[in-house]
Amino acid sequence: MIKKVAILTNGGDAPGLNAVIRAIVKTAETNGVECFGFIEGYKGLLENKLIKLDSKTNASGLLHLGGTIIGTSNNTNVFNYKIINENGEEEYKDLSDLCIQNLKNNKIDCLFTLGGDGTQKSSRDFSLKGVNCIGVPKTIDNDVADTDITFGYNTAVSVATEAIDRLHTTAESHHRVMVLEVMGRYAGWIALESAIAGGADIALIPEIPYDMNKIIEKINERRSEGKNFTIIVVSEGAKPRDGEIVIKRKLNDGKGLDNIRLGGIGDKLANEIEELTGFTSRNTVLGYVQRGGTPTSFDRVLSTHYGAKAMELALEGKFNVLVTYKNGEFSSVPLEDVVGENKKIGAASGNTAESNIRKVQMDDRLIKTARDIGICLGD
User: Fold this and answer.
1) Residue 52: its pLDDT value, please?
2) Residue from 117, 141, 146, 258 carrying the catalytic annotation
3) Is 94 a known active-site residue?
4) Residues 272-307, buried b or exposed e (16+ Cβ, 10 A)?
5) Which CATH architecture does the domain made up of 156-291+362-372 adopt?
6) Would you say residue 257 has pLDDT above 70?
């Protein structure tokens, strides 16, 4: 019988994190279990920064709040942690045993890891070292393996859709090509779904390298029909055929982390279109607005389901799993399945050959629907 559990929120913030925390705490209290939170994700676990969570005090009134009340970190891999040694040189150490000792000292029976593919990779690595872990899939990118939808995604799509609605009026008024660059990293879910919801004309996603000639054809086709504007949604990880993704900056956060910051594809695209067609083209980068602020009602309910189910699994003694939502049902899969072929402890997750992130498949209904209604996908 578990008596004490702890939560950490890791990686980029996402709408719904606080709702998950609230649901775990409330379900824990209903069953006589104490709940704690590690401050700033795996960094807090490493530094043993722990607070008590209580639905009557700090874990109350959270449903509508964006962000996370216990903070997060997206540059901490405790299995490959960058330190400065006594010679003033950088070196990497596996500090996971210190984290495990902190869990033991605090008598934590189960650790809930709220995060995306990188967070769940570390969760799986901890599970191999004897820690009882339960992952909850969080990312606006919707790219965690083995689950149909992650919390935070619906809010991001809603924000992007509203942006497209607003860009329509400017595009029509000025007869412009308007480009909207959205997040998503190596998966095109946000771009594709918001393009459908917002009535965009072109959607470019990482899974389909685009042909600029096809984009120009679509713009010209609309002009010939008397439609003197075009709306393009492009995912930050999209790239041209025989080209590469646009990298805004390379980071030095450490080994086992994705040190690439994407950004710039929207400007590149708008500039090329203007040069090739002479049509005035403008780009808008939506950026962090997509993952900030109040979660939608859908994400509030989804997050609550995820949190309650996670605590239910802990009470049943089903550890080292990821809570999943597939085909309308909440269940779980082993964390080992989530990491796929990315088996090495401390290895990076994300855009590697071994990664198991969930990308848009060509037989997905969203692809067919987009093509059916005439959205150009750049191919």
Assistant:
1) 97
2) 141
3) no
4) ebeeebebebbbbbbeeebbbeebbebbbbbbbbbb
5) 3-Layer(aba) Sandwich (3.40)
6) no
